[in-house]
Every structure is written in C-alpha cells, then in structure tokens.
Amino acid sequence: MTTRPFAVVLAGGGARGYAHVGALRALEHMGCVPAGIVGVSMGAVVAATYAVRADWYEALLAVPLSGRAVRARGHGSKDVSARAIRRAWAGARTAWSMTTGWGAPDALADAAKKTLDDLIGPGSLDGGRIPVTVCATDLITGTQVELSTGPAAPAVYASSALAGVLPPAEHDGMLLADGAYTDVAPVDVARRMGFPVVVAVDPSQGADGGPVRNGLAAVMRAMEICHTTHAHLSVDRADLVVRPEFGRFVDVLDFDARRSCVAAGAWAVRACRHEIGRLLGAEPPIRDGEVRP
After folding, report:
1. Which residue of 72, 82, 93, 177 sits 20 to 30 Å from the alpha carbon of 242, by its own alpha carbon?
2. Any catalytic annotation for residue 41?
C-alpha cells in the first residue's frame, strides 16, 4: 500500500484515452489507489466513471463506441458513386447547419448524453469514492472551467464536447466545450486540490500521425498537433508522467482500438513501477503476468 496520498491527472486523447483505464487498473494492482483524480475530455469520462462506479473497468470497456459505425460500406463502382453523392449532400447540410446551429445533429448529441448517463448514472462529482474534478473550456471567455460538484454526467459531457462534433453545454451563463482547448493535462488543478504528489497519464502520440485525406481529418489532426504541444508543456509539471506506447498510430476516434489502448496504459505503469514506488514511499510488488487488461 502507498504511504503518500496522490492525485492522478488523465489527459485528453480521444480513443487513446482508454489507456487511462489500463493505467488505473495497473496502479490498483500495485496497491496504489489515488486519493483524487482530474480528467479532461476522454480523461474526464474515465475519471468520473472511476470515481462513481465500483465496476468502472467493466463499464468502460462495455461502452457502445465503434469506428465501424462511421465507415463507408460497399465496394462496387455504383456504391462508390452513391456514397460520393451522399457525402457531398451531407457535407452541404453540415456546412449549412454550422452557420445556423451547432453543426452536429440533435440525435448525435442526445446519443452522447444518453451514453454518458448510462455509463456514469446519477452520481455526482463530489459524491464518489474519491474527489474528482473535470475541466472544460468556456467558449465565451476562453478560460478553463473546473467542475468538482454536482451531477457528473453533464459535467463530463461539457468536458468532452468537441466543437463541430458535439454542441457545447450551457452552464451558469457559460458555453462549455472540450477542456483540452485550454489545458489538455491540468496538473495545476490537481496541485490546487492539495495533494503532495501528482501522477499524470499522457496518451498523446507526437506530431507524426496517420494519413490526412479530407477536411475533417485535417481539422482533427490540426487540433491534435496543438493538443500534443500543450500536453508536453502541462504534464511536465507533474511529479511523474506515464506515457503509453501504442505500437501504431491510433486515431482519436478509433474506438475499435480500445483494448490495445488499455493494454498500453497498463504496461506503461508496469514499466515505471519502481519509480512509482519510490515516489509514493512504497515499493509495491508486481509479478509477471499480474496485470492483464
């Protein structure tokens, strides 16, 4: 067991944020249970679920997210032509809706909110087994907003509402969107919670990413480059940074890779277990084969 209380900061990273699941599980296997947790975007999803659900691990792996849902079907030339027409029409509708609304259809936002409601339930940010803070960005003032009280699911939605994909959340006169816009890894927030040690998990993959073949991919990639740069500036303020190695490029929306991301997070913690033990004032034993996501 650990002798020093510590907080964990879970950075944003889309699908790669599933590495947080493996990292938390590996820490628990070592007897290192965080006393507080801070999350941004996908990190907020994992953080809140971890804090409010005893079955957090199984619940997160069971979330119905799949990249297959947005992949095109069909292989024949007629199918390709039909898909091209549908995509052009969808693009025109999206461009129009971006100027008259939030771009994303209401059904998508409703589905995202229902998924979070089903995952997190009625739990509150300050009513779980450990205190949890999730961070969002106020699009009106451009400032970071820390949410640490009240219902967890709406706060997590606000923290992960990617502009142009999900509508922002209205909250106390603010317009809240993805927290990674202001700080992808808010180590300073964990410091202000009063914990003597902060461990950050950074699932970023650097500037060399996958192919960019369309406008959406270009926008997503541009944001990821910004987030990666900011992540290195933020997480280095932690006492220890755990950086999973994924073995291949994992797109931010590639949720089909969730299990390999979980494994990457677990093995990243395992690789620095002795440093973790020294940092927390203990040397928790871990044997080969003990952590298996």
Report:
1. 177
2. yes
Report pLDDT for 85.
Answer: 40
Q: With contact defined as beta carbons under 8 Å apart, do 42 and 15 qualify?
A: yes
Place of tokens 């590639």: 254
Q: What is the pLDDT of residue 21?
A: 98
Q: Which residues contact 39 (CB under 8 A, 6 or more apart)?
A: 9, 10, 20, 45, 46, 47, 48, 132, 133, 134, 135, 156, 159
- Both structure tokens of 278: 């020294």
d(CA 238, CA 191): 9
Following CA atoms 58, 15, 132, 56 in sequence, which dihedral angle do they give, to the nearest 10 degrees? 0
**Which residues are CB-neighbours of 41 under 8 A, at least 6 positions away?**
12, 13, 14, 17, 159, 160, 162, 178, 179, 180, 184
Classify strands 143-147 and 169-171 as parallel, antiparallel or unpaired.
Answer: unpaired
Q: Which two tokens stand for residue 77?
A: 């030339």
The one catalytic residue in 41, 124, 160, 234 is 41
Q: Provide the pLDDT for residue 235.
A: 75
pLDDT (tens digit per residue) in 29-69: 999 999 999 999 999 999 999 999 999 999 999 998 764 43
Q: What is the DSSP string of 85-140?
A: HHHHHHHHHHHHHHHHS-SS-HHHHHHHHHHHHHHHTT-BTTSSSS-EEEEEEETT
Q: Which residues of the chain have pLDDT under 70?
A: 1-3, 66-105, 206-210, 215-217, 219-234, 282-293
Alpha-carbon distance values, 159 to 76, 269, 283, 291 (Å): 41, 25, 35, 30
Q: What angle do helix axes 42-52 and 106-120 make, rounded to 10 degrees?
A: 30
Q: 31: exposed, middle or buried (C-beta count within 10 Å: 0-12, 13-18, 19+)?
A: middle
Catalytic choice (178, 183, 239, 251): 178
